[in-house]
Amino acid sequence: MQRYLIDQPTPANHQLVLPDDVAHHFVTVLRAQGGEECEIVLNDQRVYRSKLTQLEPATVELIEQLDQDAELPIHVTLACGLPKTKDKPELIVQKGTEMGADAIIFFESARSVSHWNSQKQAKKVARLQKIADGAAEQSHRNRVPSVSYLPDLKTLLERVPTDQRVVAWEESAKQGEESRLAQLLRQAQSGDRWLAIFGPEGGLTTEEIAVMEQSDTVPVGLGPRILRTETAPLYFMAAVSFALELS
């Protein structure tokens, strides 16, 4: 069943006029007729089975609240050093959303080749947010992750409140460290806020790792293989899901 995430409160009369973009997709693209059903998620993050009752303006009735929660037990923010090409941030946002990330932040690290100037930042973030919106609906999430940009690592560490910080560092894997991430996930509590940091192509510098360690960020290995900058956050999200949802 088609799902739409709409940033509106639950109407008192259970009648909801669909936003223009949602109405266009449901009525025009999918050619929904009166009586057809969809799932609506409102800003309370609850899922409602809904029925189309009127075509102009497109209106649905919230029939039943469904007991569905597709969210991870912990809140994960992925912070990624800016990759070189535009397709990599798009891949990270789309797949990271499907895998349960709460927020995705791109920041400029020491080895970032790409740079988003002030004129491009808003446009790029808006495009990535639209990708997150679509991926959240496709994967039947209960909420849409936020996508944002921060200028540097220092700002990232100062602005993102967390209960646990980790950084994916290939040197941890090279040194034979294999279990630190697993240990931290075993200690995770429902509702914890995690910040997971990943470098761009070329990785993070030892100076950046030192700064993060001073801010209680734990370096963790992601197995013995060297992962691409767009692969590492997705590996991490899969590990979180396996440890907290499937084990």
Strand-helix topology:
Elements: E1 3-5, E2 15-17, H1 20-29, E3 37-41, E4 47-55, E5 58-66, E6 75-81, H2 87-98, E7 103-107, H3 118-138, E8 146-150, H4 153-159, E9 164-168, H5 170-174, H6 180-187, E10 193-198, H7 206-214, E11 217-220, H8 232-246
Parallel strand pairs: 1-3, 6-7, 6-10, 7-8, 9-10, 9-11
Antiparallel strand pairs: 2-5, 3-4, 4-5
Helix pairs in contact: 2-3
Question: What this model shows, in words?
Answer:
With 247 residues, the protein is of the alpha/beta class. It is 35% helix and 25% strand. It contains eight helices and eleven strands. The strands form two sheets. The protein has a six-stranded parallel sheet with strand order 8-7-6-10-9-11. α2 runs parallel beside α3. The two termini are 28 Å apart.
Q: Which percent range describes the beta-strand content?
A: 15-25%
The largest β sheet comes out as: 6 strands, parallel
**Unreliable runs:** none
- Number of helical segments with 4 or more residues: 8
Structural class: alpha/beta
Helix content: 25-40%
Integer average pLDDT: 93
Instruction: Please tell me how large the radius of gyration is.
Output: 20 Å
> How many strands in all?
11
- N- and C-termini, Cα separation: 28 Å
Widest sheet, order of strands: 8-7-6-10-9-11
**Silhouette:** elongated
Taken in chain order, the helices and strands follow as: EEHEEEEHEHEHEHHEHEH
